[in-house]
Amino acid sequence: MTTTPTRTGAGMVLALLASGQFVMTLDSSVMNVSMAVVASDLGTTISGIQTAITLYTLVMATMMITGGKVGTIMGRRRAFGVGLVIYAAGSLTTAIAPNLAVLLLGWSLLEGLGASLIMPAIVALVAANFPAERRAAAYGLVAAAGAMAVAAGPLIGGAVTTFASWRYVFAGEVVIVLVILAFLRKMADVPPSPARIDYVGSLMSVVGLGSIVYGVLRTSEWGWVAPKPGAPAIFGASPSIWLIVLGLLVVFAFMRWENRLVRLGGEPLLRPALLRNRGLVGGLAMFFSQYIVQAGIFFAVPLFLSVVLELDSLQTGLRILPLSFALLVSAAGIPKAWPKANPRRVVRLGLLSVLAGVLVLVGGMDPGANAGVVAIPMLLIGLGLGALSSQLGSVTVSSVPDSESAEVGGLQNTGTNLGASLGTALVGSVLLATLTASVVTGIQTNPDVPAEVKSKASTQIIGGVPFISDKQLNEALAAAGVSGEQADAIVQVNADARLDALSNAFGVTALLTVGALFFTGRLPRRAPGSEGPPDDEDDDVTGRDTDEESAADQGPTAARERGRS
C-alpha cells in the first residue's frame, strides 16, 4: 500500500525524481558540444565519440521495456536505487576514462543500463507518491527537467569544458546521484510483484529495437535506401534500410510471441492488451511525436548558432536558455493554474505554439539573420513543449492501474528514445541532402567559380558536403591554394546553401509538428482524477473507436466477454 507524502515530503520527492531525470538527459547534450575536446583527451577521433553516443542511445532504447519489468519484480524504489548505483559507477568510470574503450564501458554500457532501470522507475514512483489530481503537475515538472537538460546541456558543457574539463560534468553527476540515494527512503514505494522475466521476449525486443535504432542512427553515413558514395551496400541498398526492416520483423515476431505466452497462461514481458488501450496508445504516440519534433529542433538550432553565426558553446547555450525557462513555466504553471484543463486541448495548443515558433525560424533564415532571430521562437517552442510535458505523463499512467506504471514507464521511454533517434536522423538527412544539392547548384550557376571547380563539384562533392562555418571553409580553401574572388564565391555559395538547408530542416520539423496534431484525437478530454462521465469520444482521423477497441480499454476480461457475445 502506498502513502501520499506530506506537502514538504512531496516537494522533496519531486525534486529528487526531477534531478534523476535531469541527470539521465544531460549526458548526450553535454557530449555533443564537447566532442572535439573529449576526442583529443582520449586520443581518439570524432567518429569514436559518435560511436559512444550511438551505443549509449542504443542501450537505453533496447533495455527500457526489460528495465520496467525488472522494476516490477524488485520494487520501484529499489530499481531506482540500483539503477542509480550502476549509473554512478558508469559516470565515475567515464570521468577517469583514459581511452575510448573505458569511455564505452562507463558511459555507453553502464550508464545506459542504469538509465534503463531509472527512467521507468521514475514514472512509477510519481504514480506512487502523488494522488491522481496532482500527477499532471508532477509529471510536467519531471518531464520539464529532462527537456531543460537538453536545452541547458550545451551551456553547461560549454562552460565546464571551456573553463575546466568535461570530466567534471560526469564527476558532478556522481555527487547528484549520492544526494538522491541519501534521501531515497523519503519516497513511497509499491511492493514488488512476484513475476518472471520472459528472456526470449527480452532478447527479441533488444534485437528488434536495437536494429531499428541503429539503422536510423546510421542513415546520415549510409543513406536511408540508396547507399551514399563510399558507404557499404547490401544487395544494392543501404545497410540502414535492411536493419530497419529486420528490426520491424523481429518486433512483429516479438508481439506474436507475447500473444502466445498470454494464451498459454505465461508471463509476457509486455502484455499486448496494453497496446489496445486507447488512452495509453494516444499518450505514447504523442510522446513519440514530441521527441521527434524536439530532437529536430535541438539538432538544427545549435547548428545555426554555432556554425552559421559562429557563436561558441557558451553563447549558443545562452541563446537556447529562454526555451528552458519558458518550458519550466509552462510545465509547472498549466497544472497549477488549470488543474482540470482538457488534456487534448492543452496538447493541441502546445503543438500550435511549437509550430508557430518553428515557422518563425523558417522565415528567419535569410542572409541578414543574427542571433536575435531565435529569441521569440525559443519562447514559443518552450511554452509548447512545456504544455505537452504538463499532460502526457499523467495521461499515459492514468490509463492503467498503478501496479502497471513501471511497465508503462518502459514503453514510454522506449517511445521517447525511438522518437529522438528518428527526429535527429530525419532532420539531419534532409539538412545534409539540401546542403549538398544547393552547393552543387550554386557552384554550377556562379560565374565567378572556375570551370575546373564546377566539373569537380558534380562528381566529388555529390556524396555530401560537410556543414561547416565560413571560417572553417576559408581555412580549407587556403590550404588547397584557392584564394581571391574564387574563394569568396565558394564561401558565398556555401553560406547561401547552409541557410537553404536550415530552412528545409525547420520546414520538415514544422511538417512533423502538424502531423502530430492528427494523433491528438486519442487523448482524453478530461484531466486524470477529475469527476465526470466516461470519456469515450475519439475525433482523430481514424474515426470513433470500434466496439472491440472500447472493450479492450476496459480490460482483457471485458474484451473476451464482448467477443463471446
From TrEMBL:
Mark out the compositionally biased spans (Acidic residues): 533-551
| Record-linked InterPro entries | MFS, MFS_dom, MFS_trans_sf
Region entry Disordered, spans: 523-565
- Membrane is among the record's keywords: yes
Per UniProt, the keywords (alphabetical) are: Membrane, Transmembrane, Transmembrane helix, Transport
Transmembrane spans: 46-67, 79-107, 113-130, 137-160, 166-184, 196-217, 237-257, 278-305, 317-334, 346-365, 371-388
Keyword Transmembrane applies: yes
Q: How does it sit in the membrane?
A: Multi-pass membrane protein
Write down the PROSITE patterns for this protein, in alphabetical order.
Answer: MFS (PS50850)
Compartmental location: Cell membrane
Residue ranges annotated for the Major facilitator superfamily (MFS) profile domain, each copy included: 13-528
* Protein's name according to its UniProt entry: MFS transporter
| Organism for this UniProt entry | Terrabacter ginsenosidimutans
